[in-house]
Write a structure and sequence with these properties.
The complex is a heterotrimer of chains A (about 350), B (about 475) and C (about 90).
Chain A lengths: L1 E5 H11 L4 E4 L6 H10 L6 E4 L3 H13 L4 E5 L1 H16 L4 E9 L5 E4 L4 H5 L10 E3 L4 H18 L2 E7 H5 L1 E5 L24 E2 L6 H21 L3 E4 L6 E4 L3 H15 L4 E6 L1 E3 L3 H7 L5 E6 L5 H9 L5 E5 L8 H15 L1
Parallel strand pairs in A: 2-3, 2-4, 4-5, 5-8, 7-8, 12-13, 12-15, 15-16
Antiparallel strand pairs in A: 1-9, 5-6, 7-14, 11-13
Helix pairs in contact in A: 1-2, 1-6, 3-4, 9-12, 10-11
Chain B lengths: L3 E5 L26 H15 L6 E5 L7 H4 L3 E4 L5 H11 L4 E7 H7 L1 H9 L5 E6 L29 H4 L5 H6 L6 E6 L3 H19 L5 E6 L3 H4 L3 H15 L3 E5 L14 H5 L8 H7 L6 E8 L4 H14 L3 E6 L3 H4 L2 E9 L13 E4 L2 H7 L8 E4 L14 E4 L2 H8 L5 H13 L4 H11 L3 H21 L14
Parallel strand pairs in B: 2-3, 2-4, 4-5, 5-7, 6-7, 9-12, 12-13, 13-14
Antiparallel strand pairs in B: 6-8, 9-11, 10-11
Helix pairs in contact in B: 1-8, 4-5, 13-17, 13-18, 16-17, 16-19, 17-19, 18-19
Chain C lengths: L6 E5 L9 H5 L5 E3 L11 E3 L9 H5 L6 E6 L13
Classes of the chains: A alpha/beta (about 350), B alpha/beta (about 475), C alpha+beta (about 90).
Chain lengths: ~350, ~475, ~90
């Protein structure tokens, strides 16, 4: 049965469904409900919730729990995510699975608490030091806050890598019907974990490889893993792209707005379509190129000054113009605004 | 001749051969005379004697001892600089039966990791911290530590540590003993055989306490660093005895258990906890069950405390129960805490695109500022519900239906200003015909447990509906002085 | 015949780094640094006299895990003090 649920709360419910019994976090608007509901719910199913002294500690607790074989998560927003980057680099380096929910707000610096999509670079390209990747999933609805959280746990374990739920303040704060079905989570065996028992006594969780050859071998191993992830885990969806002459591209809340823009544009006789990346890393380049087949131009809309647009350009590879429209600071464009921006750019381009 | 039996020898808690080490796998990477080797030996020996080897997880962060995992044949987790207590916290909580050791140097524990150690200690984590204080940064080559002595030179305190520039050496054992939770904190020194034997007892006691589940234990170990101090190993040891101990007095700083009753959380099954019940309905099934509904985009606005967000949620909840696609989007943050509040509700028969309602079909304005702010954006043919007997004189709306409903007034008459939003809901349902009244009644009665409030809600819903029915003629063009006359 | 020493010490010449802490700590002064260099170029410790009491202090002050092994005379076990009580 459906329940009206806030996006942030759906994350916690989904985490519990996925078998997550460990949450370490630090409050920050607009992600705080995730910690609040984790504090309320996770101990009731025998799990651990701990409010850490900082995001730095929280992510290192995540590291510890992941090392000990737990399905573990944390949640934060921009400034807290910045503090977590060290730990995320260590998690990736030590190949520890975990889920990090980033409910993005406006930055840089303290910025404000209104929605933005300006953590795209720091989550998809690294953010911390070293050659590593996060698996990044971008929900656009409350139902997806749940389903992609569950998927994030699955992928994190599959690839032994941090997985990020990259949401924005809107998706985190809004309420929509959430339809959950009780399923037993499939948590894979983790023979590499350090559990404080005889079986795992010989195990070591570490990101140090002192000699250059060993370090290179480790980085190559990670690289191969990321390639496999790129082959298997690209996810996206399209809306009315079959005959689209202009392709709108947006993720998260923006994809919802653009869906309405597509309909508006078509009411005005413009054959628009929508491409929405669900996985931001790996970026669904091939699917995007396919969706753009009938198009003569692409317009990317983001709540940033232009981050994902770089990946779109790489995917389109110069075959057609890629336009960009961004709003920042917590301002969110309406469907009508996006339509006007699209039409303005079409006059120039056609 | 009698036989000799082995009385002291390499403990099996150490690996036989240090295969994780690149070269010289039969000896440690520590410099000759280094205190770490002795500290390692005391820990390994205690783990062996207490039968804890299989249960132990060693957490080693940055510092010379980052390679502790070369040596300890236990579970090993390497951690970031200063973060070992945070890592150890979660390692322990994940497997409470494990014995978790955080092995940290002075830069790690008392500089970069100050927050982590203080809070792990303050939470009374059932871990054991071995804090090796040698007054200097060893691994990075002799920079100043937070425990460097006044006047002591280092590569980053070339004029000697100056209190006016770097402050005073930090006393962690004393600091942490000021906290409520720790059960055992002792400072020992590896300065000579006698003190090493005292250290041996302290190490074992700390681990024994952890084994008993007592709580947070820490042994601060004053230790020689001959290489960086540029002293012969024996001289460095004497320096610990003669100089370091003077600054950091030895002794037991804490040896008692805090008294408290643990508070336990009641347990539930996942389905009950998450409110999972019934089976999922397909889209077709949901469509079939839908009663009479109308798709609407609604903006509810007013000031904080008027139940603005709740009104929006109630409408969304009703739409969901009627098997519609719905979304509710609040204004949030400081805005929510003071001043204006608004939320967007979309009731739809198809997948909801943008949840942002920029041009609403229906505006509920619970006060004048929000009426002025949002009324100009109402879609032509749309409805405005305004919480007053009449519109402000200067406002006129063409092509809209305006219903002035003095919801706050009506709510006061019913007995609580709190139900003004429910009055407005009654009016909204009557004005828009978007959802059945019975659904509103069901949602409200499910929401409120308090009998008196539930009755008031019922009255409020009815009053809002009746007011619109009897006092306002919906559909008429509103004049500035009233509502739809 | 001289009385048999209550203990004896074996130094692993390959593991010893020649720091000299055991030499300084040995109560009966039964250890010295060898005049010979081992292949790391240090003077390793060596047990040179039959005067070991088997107290184990050298083992505990030695920073290396297995450079020193201490033995005790089987019959004399109850007579010697345990290192832990020093």
């Amino acid at each position: 049965m459906r329940q009206l649920c806030k996006g942030n709360v759906a994350v916690v419910k989904a985490a519990i469904m996925a078998g997550c019994r460990s949450f370490y976090g630090y409050p920050i608007t607009p992600a705080s409900e995730i910690a609040e509901y984790a504090a309320l719910l996770i101990p009731q199913v025998g799990g651990t919730f701990l409010q850490a002294e900082s995001e730095v500690s929280a992510i290192n607790m995540v590291y510890g729990a992941a090392a000990a074989g737990q399905r573990v998560m944390t949640a934060s927003s921009g400034p807290g995510i910045s503090l977590m980057q060290e730990g995320i680099s260590y998690l990736a380096g030590a190949e520890l699975p975990c889920v990090i929910a980033d409910v993005m707000r406006a930055g840089p610096g303290l910025g404000n608490i209104a929605p933005e999509q300006s953590d795209y670079f720091c989550m998809t390209k690294g953010g911390g030091h070293g050659c590593y990747r996060n698996i990044v999933l971008a929900p656009s609805s409350v139902q997806e806050m749940a389903s992609l959280t569950m998927l994030a746990f699955e992928l994190a374990d599959k690839y032994r890598n941090p997985a990020v739920l990259l949401a924005d303040g809107f998706v985190g704060q809004m309420m929509e019907p959430l339809d959950l079905e009780l399923v037993e989570p499939v948590v894979p065996q983790k023979p590499w974990a350090v559990k404080g028992d005889l079986e795992t006594r010989k195990n070591l969780i570490s990101s140090i490889h002192l000699t250059p050859d060993l370090m290179e071998a480790h980085i190559r191993h990670l690289e191969e893993k990321y390639s496999e992830c790129e082959r298997n885990e690209c996810r996206s969806e399209t809306y009315r792209t079959e005959d689209a002459e202009v392709l709108l591209v947006g993720y998260g809340i923006v994809s919802r707005i653009l869906r309405s823009t597509v309909d508006l544009a078509r009411q005005h006789g413009v054959k628009a379509g929508l491409f929405r990346p669900i996985s931001l890393w790996p970026f669904p380049s091939k699917a995007l190129a396919t969706a753009a087949k009938s198009a003569v131009k692409v317009m990317v809309v983001e709540l940033s000054t232009g981050q994902m647009v770089e990946d779109v350009k790489l995917s389109i590879n110069g075959s057609m113009p890629v336009e960009f429209y961004g709003r920042v600071g917590g301002n969110v464009p309406s469907a009508e605004e996006c339509q006007a921006e699209l039409f303005a750019r079409m006059e120039v381009l056609v | 001749m009698s036989e000799y039996n082995v009385s002291q020898c390499r403990t099996p808690v150490f690996f036989d051969r240090f295969e994780r080490k690149d070269e010289n796998q039969h000896q440690t990477h520590y410099c000759p005379g280094c205190g770490h080797g002795v500290a390692h030996k005391l820990i390994a020996e205690a783990l062996g004697e207490l039968g804890l080897q299989d249960r132990t997880v060693m957490v080693s962060p940055v510092g010379c001892s980052v390679f502790a995992y070369y040596y300890f044949d236990t579970g090993n987790v390497q951690a970031a600089h200063g973060r070992a207590p945070a890592v150890a916290t979660a390692v322990k909580r994940s497997n409470p039966g494990s014995i978790v050791i955080s092995y940290q140097g002075d830069g790690d524990l008392a500089a970069i990791g100050t927050a982590e150690i203080v809070h792990a200690a303050n939470r009374g984590e059932n871990i054991t911290v071995f804090f090796v204080n040698n007054s200097i940064y060893g691994m990075t080559g002799g920079q100043m530590a937070p425990t460097t002595l006044i006047g002591q030179t280092s590569t980053t305190s070339p004029w000697g540590r100056r209190p006016n520039n770097e402050g005073f050496p930090i006393k962690m054992a004393e600091m942490l003993s000021a906290l409520e939770a720790p059960v055992y904190i002792e400072r020992v020194a590896l300065s000579d055989a006698k003190h090493i034997m005292q250290a041996r007892r302290a190490v074992k006691k700390a681990l024994q306490l952890q084994k008993e589940g007592a709580g947070f234990t820490m042994v601060e170990i004053l230790s020689p660093c001959p290489t960086i101090l540029k002293m012969e190993p024996t001289v460095a040891r004497h320096w610990v005895a003669d100089t370091l101990i003077k600054q950091f007095p030895l002794g037991v700083y804490r040896d008692r258990k805090p008294e408290f009753e643990p508070v336990l959380v009641p347990q539930k099954g996942v389905a009950e906890l998450l409110g999972i019940s019934g089976k999922r309905l397909s889209d077709e099934e949901r469509h079939a069950r839908r009663q009479h509904t109308r798709a609407k985009t609604i903006k509810v606005s007013g000031f904080g405390g008027q139940g603005i967000l709740l009104l929006g949620q109630l409408i969304a909840e009703m739409g969901m129960r009627e098997h519609m696609e719905v979304s509710w989007l609040p204004s949030y943050g400081p805005e929510m805490r003071s001043g204006s509040a608004h939320c967007d509700v979309t009731l739809s028969h198809d997948r909801v695109g943008t949840p942002l309602v920029s041009t609403p079909d229906v505006l509920v304005a619970m006060n004048e500022p929000s009426l002025r702010k949002f009324a100009p954006h109402v879609r032509p043919g749309g409805v405005i519900l305004y919480n007053s007997r009449q519109l402000p004189e200067d406002l006129k709306f063409e092509g809209l239906t305006v219903a002035c409903v003095p919801a706050s007034e009506i709510a006061d008459q019913i007995g609580s200003a709190k139900v003004s939003n429910v009055v407005m809901m009654g009016a909204l349902l009557e004005a828009t015909d978007c959802l059945p009244f019975t659904t509103a009644q069901a949602v409200l009665s499910g929401l409120v447990k308090n009998r008196k409030l539930a009755e008031m809600n019922e009255k409020a819903l009815e009053a809002g509906r009746n007011y619109l029915d009897t006092e306002v003629l919906v559909g008429a063009v509103a004049g500035p002085d009233g509502c739809g006359e | 015949m001289a009385e048999q020493a209550r203990g004896k010490v074996e130094v692993n010449q390959d593991e010893c780094k020649g720091c000299g802490l055991c030499v300084e700590s040995c109560p009966p002064k039964g250890l010295t640094l060898s005049p010979e260099l081992n292949h790391y170029g240090v003077h390793p410790a060596q047990y040179h006299a039959e005067i070991c009491t088997g107290c184990g202090i050298c083992y505990f002050v030695c920073p290396e895990p297995g450079a020193i092994t201490v033995y005790r005379l089987a019959v004399a076990k109850s007579e010697v003090s345990d290192a832990a009580t020093v």
